[in-house]
Amino acid sequence: MASGPIAPSTAAAAETGAGPGSGGRRGRRGRPGAGRRGPSLRVREGRAGLVLVSPTVLIVLLVVVLPFLWTIIMSFQRLRLIDLQNVFDITLTLRNFETVLGSADLWVMVRTTLIYSIGGTVLSIGAGLATALALRQRFPGRMIIRAFVLVPYVIPVVSAALVWRTLLNPQFGPVNVFGVDVLGWDQPIGFLSERFHRIELFGVGFDAPIALLSVIAFEAWKTFPLAFLFILARLQGLPRDLEEAARVDGASPLQRFRYIVAPQLSGVIALLVLLRFIWTFQNFNDVYLLTRGAAGTEVVAVQVYQYLVARNDVGGAAALGLLMSVVLIIAFAVYYRYGVLKQESEL
Amino acid sequence: MASRERVETRVLGVARVLWLTVVLIACVLPLLYMLLLSVRPLQAVLQDPLGVPSPSELNLEAYRKVIASPEDGGYGLLSFFGNSLIVALGSVVATVLLSVLGAYAATRLRFPGKNVINISFFACYMFPGIVMAIPLFVLFSRLGLRGELPALIVIYLASTVPVSVYMLRNYFRSIPRALEDAAMVDGCNRVQVIVRIVLPLAMPSIAATSLYVFMIAWNEYLFALLFLLESRDNWTVSLGLAQLDDISVSATVLMAGSVLLTLPVIALFFAAERLLVEGLTAGAEKG
Questions:
Q1: DSSP bridge partners of A285
Q2: SS3 of A9, please?
Q3: Chain B residues touching A272 at Cβ < 8 A
Q4: Spatial distance between the Cα atoms of A201 and A213, rounded to a whole number of angstroms
Q5: Residues 6+ apart with CB under 8 A from B213
């Protein structure tokens, strides 16, 4: 043993926490009995680790990884919901991709999805950042405000969508009633049913994609609490002395934010941008519940659902879903490449 | 310079108060409106949408209607609460069980492939639900399990386990290792260490994780819609309520249903808000 490879025994010693030079270590080394005592602690630890983690890995493998691989296969199959026997038919075809990529409204959908996910991400994180900065200082009632700010994030999306639909209802929704009675709008606005609404501001008129803007606002409202929470946690971990020093040196509050606070928040904000973009890009619930994808709000997730359920076209749904995943994988890979994830999450 | 400091401080102070007011209104008002509408008669709402209701017109008719079974002229929401509870509690138990083991392994043990597993968890966490839904939809249809609640539990388990492992792992790290070593020296095996030492100490984070899983499962809509639509007896509350919106039910009834759907989640959230926030953001401070 003493002349054998040294690595396992040092690892085992480090594992049990025995210090160098202690009597115990010498005793263990002198014993040739690794074999007699069964596998080393390190090996047993490795086995225990694998055993404990295997149910989790198994479930993730079965429900996430294998289905994804299967999606890839299905996207090359002619598969309709009525004849699922074809699941094992391995005649591969590019028809699904032709259907999906050849559809007339493909680019409209891509544009809508991008506007939706970028707009939702920016608004959500912007609002989260502003709220976190506003709640940074301690004051009475701060924790209560924090709890209330989280409400949109925790309530069920179905309730949230229903109350927004009621609030924005053109007949009796308080927003429209207030707009017409108090703000003097000519007519109620169909926030969730009008593709474009003509807006006159300071003599300049333009057509606002009102339904799309409404679902973006909903998305930002529903998710900004998460951004708020993460940015606030980071803010509270920042050392105060740098800012204090800058204040003494005459830096104004905005300068202190720009040169001292903002750079230290860039990591958490970069991570949030990735997470929010990925989640908004694939979001189905919000748009489907608010507009069913009508009035210029048909995002890609809603269209995948339509392929699957309305057209019974499993292959088409899989092809579109696959293309959608590719975009997300690219976003993930870019982040991974530049090390943002490693540094932020220590995974 | 001193005046710039003063001007900015004052402007920012005003902006801060204004912004917080807007945020609070945006967060609380919709909920209040939901509650308010649910106790007013529809006629009164249509006549005076912005009006504050007089105490005399308040009634719980909308609640009666949304809860009562279809035979009694209602919309039968009450019968869906059992389904939601089964799905949510089932997901909590399964997820906590698996993620305690996984998180313990990820913090305490070194095993081959650990880093790969960590990264792939993170990737799964962000994987599009709608894409995952396609093959699972086909699979469960083939197996004849599509309309069954266990199918949903398995899916919620898989979609919450990555975050749960992450939340628990951050907490496990703060438990001193010496305690476990001492227990092992005293003759505990790995399972006994987890059950007797780690679990009692990690109770706060297990509570936070359970709460997180419960909320995800209770609130979930897409998979409930895809899988349960054709078996009405198994509908969850979220699905049942969303389906009501399709058959032009009056707004007051929809709001009463929304209150009932939201209430359990809000109650749990306010009971354990601090736990949940700490659990979710643990590790974010060091960033």
A1: none
A2: helix
A3: none
A4: 17
A5: B88, B91, B92, B95, B96, B156, B160, B164
Length of chain B: 287
* Residue found under tokens 């209607």: B65
Contact B261 A159 (CB under 8 A): yes
Structure tokens, A275: 């997470």
Domain at A104-345: CATH architecture: Orthogonal Bundle (1.10)
Q: Is A33 on the interface with B (CB under 8 A)?
A: no
A59·B287 Cβ contact <8 A: no
Of B99, B157, B238, the CB nearest to A156: B238
Look up the ipTM and state it. Answer: 0.89
Residue B273 confidence class, pLDDT cut points 50, 70, 90: confident
In a shared domain, residues B145 and B11: no
- Whether residue B49 sits in one domain with residue B109: no
Owning domain of residue B236: 72-281
Q: Does A17 touch chain B (CB under 8 A)?
A: yes
Nearest CA distance, B119 vs chain A (angstrom): 6
Q: What is the pLDDT of residues A150-201, one digit of tens each?
A: 999 999 999 999 999 999 988 888 888 888 888 888 888 888 887 887 777 7
pLDDT tens track for B183-231: 888 888 888 888 888 888 888 889 889 998 999 999 999 999 999 988 8
